[in-house]
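Input chain follows. Return structure tokens only.
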Amino acid sequence: MFKKLFGALKRTFTGKEKISPALPRNETELDREISALYSIVIDAMGSDRLVLQAGKMDALRFLRSNDPGERILALRRILEENPTIGPPPSKSEIPAEIVKLSELMADIIARRQMEDKIDRKVNEKLEHDHQEYVKDIRLQILREEKPDEETPHEIKKREQLEKLESVNLTQSVMELLRPKTLEEIIGQERAVKSLRAKLASPYPQHLILYGPPGVGKTTAARLVLEAVKPLEYSPFAEDAPFVETDGTTLRWDPRDMTNPLLGSVHDPIYQGAQKSLADSGVPEPKPGLVTEAHGGILFIDEIGEMDMMLQNKLLKVLEDKRAYFESAYYDPTDERVPAYVKMLFENGAPADFVLIGATTRDAGSINPALRSRCAEIYFEPLTPAHIIEIINNAAEKLRVELETGVAETVAEYTIEGRKAINILADAYSLALESADNKITKNQIYEVAQVSRLFQYVTKKASSKAIVGHIFGLGVSGFIGSVIEIEAIVFPAEKGKGTIRFNETAGSMAKDSVFNAASVLRQVTGKDIHDFDVHINVIGGGNIDGPSAGTAILSALISAVTGAKIRQDVAVTGEISLQGRVRPVGGVFEKAYGAKQAGIKTLIIPKENAKDIPRGHLGLKIHAVETADEAFKWIFADEIKND
């Protein structure tokens, strides 16, 4: 059609009928030429569209005018789509305007002809794709109607899977020896009792479990859930899920395109929503672990390793008890959106669960707002006695005999229940080759050598008193340990003595030395500047804080006066300039370190007495207010005061 119109336009304004703007025309010729232009426009646009366009371009009154100039103006406004063009051309300008309009119309018709060609190709492509889509649907329907019919390739893959399913190894040693009841969790009676009390309630609490690795935090949480399910007042149903994940693996995209914990949305273009949704341009929301744990427990191991922003997002889910989804591709008015997708976008996914986070790091690694919504439970380090009990119980399950002293030997190499089981399992494999099926100490030593293990604690305490040597106490993570501090002095020119102290021990420990020097003068009347003094922390460890103040003071007084210090006593506490023993942190964990080293007597600040049970770990615990009180238990000899 456009070729025909273009040919008519060309014949009208070219060849024999070529118009020259310089030649005058009479009004009849002008009217005929203008009428020809209008005829071509009407053929191209249609009369209805022409009238509508004229109305939009404020050209309707000119369209119906008898004035040739105004009719030309109307055509210009319609074709150029500009209602501000004006005024009408004069008679002398009309021929030139007719030529411009003819060229403009030729361009418009040519462009529309090309657009029509492109539209035709697009329609052909859409029709082809539609036929392919219909073909796919038919094949899918046929497969659904005949599900038993498999292709040779599908049969081969299925047979390979069935063959793999038929091969089963026995359960792992860790699975066999994992505690099956709460009573089998050794050394955590107080923590397990507290954990059960917080879950066995109509209003269970979110929890954070602190403690060293391998002491049973995950196992305790799982077993406590099973224990509280049957309770009449428990909110957990019989099928309440226990969803376990690890904070170190919970990586996510800050744009929320992927978030396995909270859930994410797969858009239909770039992320591959399922075909039925992608073909309709509908985004696909995918709920995360928080929804999978709905009605049960979400256990996040190493929660302290989680990104802080992700912790904030988790906090929002805990408050709302729902996980919400957003997508620029979601159109709530689109009738093609499935009902379940609309529910997820408009109402969110249910996420009403109890959070239990476990960590081997300190509380500072967890978002304070998240911590404030959780009760906190501390699991205790295992003592050698606990490791021995764990090993003996595991030997019963393995039905293997232990040589005398095997359990004690394992306890020398680890304080982790899981690691102890691993050592025993390795030794068990060696024992299977022997005739008597008996695990020996030599096999434990062989495992230790191959695994490059070293004795975790060597007994340091003794019954012999020594001058200038004392045991302080420190904490690393949730494990306490003894710190050996020694001091030696040499007479120097009066007032010109020097003091040397480990720089690696830390600035606060160095401050404790100067505090101790002042108290030394009060206690003994001797000026530290009359001596060359060297105070050493054996091993060069860093002392985080002033808790070694009383120990440093005692070592310094012993070196100056010659009074001997008992070597079965450990002391912790900050020393003030007035000689008062100030409270410190980590007393409970420090007691564990003292016990491991064979210490019998523990000296702590009086203000810390409430932090540790009386007789804890079989230690004699003395809470003191002043250095003088501490000296009664520290020194074997009387302090000499010149």
